[in-house]
Automatic annotation (TrEMBL):
It comes from the Bacteria. Keywords: ATP-binding, Nucleotide-binding. One of its GO terms (cellular component) is cytoplasm. Residues 818-883 form the HTH luxR-type domain. The keyword RNA-binding does not apply. Pfam families: AAA_16, GerE. This is Helix-turn-helix transcriptional regulator. One of its GO terms (biological process) is regulation of DNA-templated transcription. PANTHER family: TESTICULAR SOLUBLE ADENYLYL CYCLASE, TRANSCRIPTIONAL ACTIVATOR DOMAIN. GO terms for molecular function: adenylate cyclase activity; ATP binding; DNA binding.
Amino acid sequence: MLYGRTAQQAELGKLLDAARAGRSGVVVLRGEAGIGKTALLDWAAGTASGMRVLRVQGVEAESELPFAGLVQLLWPIQRHIGALPAPQAGALRAVLGQGPAEAADRFSTGLATLTLLAELAESGPLLCLVDDAHWLDQASADALLFAARRLAAEGVAMVFAARDEDGFAAAGAAELRLPRLDGRVAADLLAGWAFAPDLRDRIIAESAGNPLALVEFAAGQGAHPGDRPEAERLPVADRVLAAFGARLAALPEPVRLVTLLAATGGRSTPAVLLRAAKRLETGPEDLERAERAGLLRVGADAVTFRHPLIATAAYQGASFADRIAVHRALAEETDVPDCRANHLLALTTAPDDQVAAELADAAGRARRRTAYASAARLYERAAALTPAEHVRAERLAEAAAAALLAGRTEQAADLALRAEPLFTGHHGGRDDLARVRSAVEFERGEPGRAAEILIERARHAEPDAAAEMLRTAAGHAWFSGRPDPIRAAAARLRELGRADASVQGMAHLLDGDPGRGLPLLAEHVESARKTPRDGGDRLRAIYGSVILGDDESTLTLAAAEIEEYRTKGLIARLPPVLQAQAQAQTRVGLHRDAIASVAEAAAIARDTGLRRRAEELDVVLAWIAAIEGDEERCRGLAHAATDSSRVAADCALSLLDLSLGRPEQALRRLASAWRGPGRHVSVLMASAADHIEAAVRLGRPQEAEAPLRRFRAWAEGGGIPWALAVAARCAALLGEGEEAYLRALELHRQGGRPFERARTELLYGEWLRRARRRSAARAPLRSALATFERLGAAPWIERTRTELRAAGDDTHASRPAAAVLTDRLTSQELQVIRLAAEGHSSREIGARLFLSRRTVEYHLYKAYPKLGVTSRRELAALDLAGR
């Protein structure tokens, strides 16, 4: 029976009922040690009728073992792994040690865990209970939380139990906090104990409403740490810990020793514990005595403690010599290499080549299984025990690389700093160290420094490694707006006989020569579209197409890259490519698609800890808000811009100001941006049209001349039709008249950015009306209105309608049906519907979007009524292009 937990039981009951109805949910039980979290999990398991129950428990002794927690989950259900997509099945088999570890993304295991839970739920609702989650190893915690955040309509309920103070972070999950019991409930709990009233009252007061303390202090009949005055200053959980320590201290030494052995061995099998016990001259009779004392339970597969605090008390209360002896015995007798490494790590304090080598081997296994945080720790400890300085340097560098892959940027920086002075000469390990240090600086928002590190190291590296570093350095330097590192990278690549068109192109652009720079970028982009390249080269081609303003190439290259990442489960690599895709989708008028891309990228960035990326994604949405004239949303999104996206945010705000009739503010903002370090970026170049129009509206055309010269040179250098069209439009604004407008419209017909085409049509229509050619003005104005309405560009719609009325046309276009349809859908529904309309199965869609089959079908059935259809067959007949 549970005391004082009615509210929490009701909430957990709702969670279970929802899972039975096919809706997934996650909750975290929070509270101090002994507050009753495990009892609530037991209650949930006991009331989960009709549900399959899986249970995982974090163990303090295994908190550093890679995937120790996840193995618990997988072991009884491993026969289901074969039903998963091959990369996911491979990731989980690697966790179990049943196959090669080929995964490169630490989140691929979480994705596989999600898919596995969803597969299990196909045959009925599932309850997954995770006790003592604060002691889960990091790799298991990452995998389980990744799965938990992406559950939706599978019929899976997940409950984590964690202590308040121990830092188990589960952002986004609902929490249930367990309060202490009040005096009345505490008295009810002790009702079966025959105590004198004063002793009962004392136990209740000492326990402070903690259920475990009540039971333990009652069992001791008042002989507990509260008898000592200093105990009154201790937190109640520490008093219970001290009470357990006192009980252990009263036991014979062999029983204490075997209890310490069980506490140190984690989930070691009884056979392993008994072999280790023999080395310590204890045996099964002592283990039995510990069980009779109510400290632990001996099962067929493991020895478990009645409460985790008993294990903590056993370890903390032991002498240093006993701890070392126990770790040594377990290291000799364990059958698991990673467990042996963990024990060796605990018992070795002086440099030892053999132990260091074993720890490095364990680190390598952890890294191959994507347990990068564990790998970093093991490499670091291996380095500390390594006598030879050059080997110690290599292992610290390995630790730094693993920490970076684990998302622990500052730890990586510290390890790299420690490794650097240990390398001598031109050791090859310096290359990897330079890459780590550069990546750290880039993540810190110092792209210029990141570039310098790689350029300096490239002077001493082998040609192939040097070329790769120099290309990466050029990309970093571009974001810093500093031309010197890019010039240096371009020159060094030529010296190596590896001249690179994209690097040289960027150098010319930063020198203010788009006529030479953009054709080189276009050459690289075209080559990448035609010929398969390595991942780094494709990414550079995507960024090159963004610089060019070649939206079609951006979409083509990004789609191919995203497809590969989805197929391989390389989740953490998706956000920057999805961001580039979203930017291009915005430019080509696919606003809903862009919002969907941003939503997916933001969810992944949140799950993978890419905070800066999440902030940059907001700027893409700020552009859409600017086009739509949503001032509050645009300003809110732009406010979150990082240094690297500040110029893009300012350009979005300038467009908003221009659309809302504030040309002075738009002009001032853009003029300021041109004087800053980001003046080379393509988004600012493309905003030259806003700069020019603002100056013309203010009657200051002289302030538009320099922007027009820059933009015209950029448009002619790239040769992209939409850019050439906008350049002609701007020339028309500055006096070249109708011929320039007609030239602009002809170029727009070659395709490109519809918002810019509509603006050209609007300006031409206004020009015709002012020239008293009202009849001729109507056609371009109507075309502009249709586009603005499709894009939801409210200020531009109103401005165009005003012009149409002045031109004698009171009619107005209606938004296309596709835009109306797609506006009814959420971002996730839109992605699912589009893929379903292309003929993909629910399972295929789930694999692409990292969702379960049931969640895909949930989104489909939510979307069908919004679209007025009842089946997949009817989707193909809809125009879902939208805006």
